[in-house]
Amino acid sequence: MGTVLALLISLFSCFIAIIVLATSSNPPSRKLTVFLEIVCFFFFIAIVSYAIKDNMKDDIKENSQDEYILPNSDKELLEEDDIDELDEEELMLARNEIYARHGRRFNDKKIQSYFDTKSWYKGLVLPEEFQQETLSWKEQKNVEFILKYENPENAVYDHVLSQ
Fold it and tell me: Residue 163's pLDDT is what?
């Protein structure tokens, strides 16, 4: 926001300078007027391109958030309301999403294929090399919380919880 404000103030200053020069008793040289017009044009282009870039960042962030089952499971402790409408498979994927955020790869092909489709996923850590301590305490609590709601007979456990 500060950059846009600075660009707007600069653009406004250019327009004021052009108006003052155009209405003065001693009109400026044509070169000076053209120079100021070019400067104003570049400030205008800078403002538009910054606004477009900023809007694209918001779109990318929004689209990335749409790719998560539980977008805030890395920042907030989950509650029943967060997961009560998820089926067994979604719970399993939501739990593994916490690990996937840290670049963990998965032995289970179905889980790995699922995360490979996500733009945010960078699977760089082999399952046997993943350190449980990589997770924040909130993430560890969320894994435990989700596990309580998964059907233990049918859930796919692709990691080992440290006890």
Answer: 30
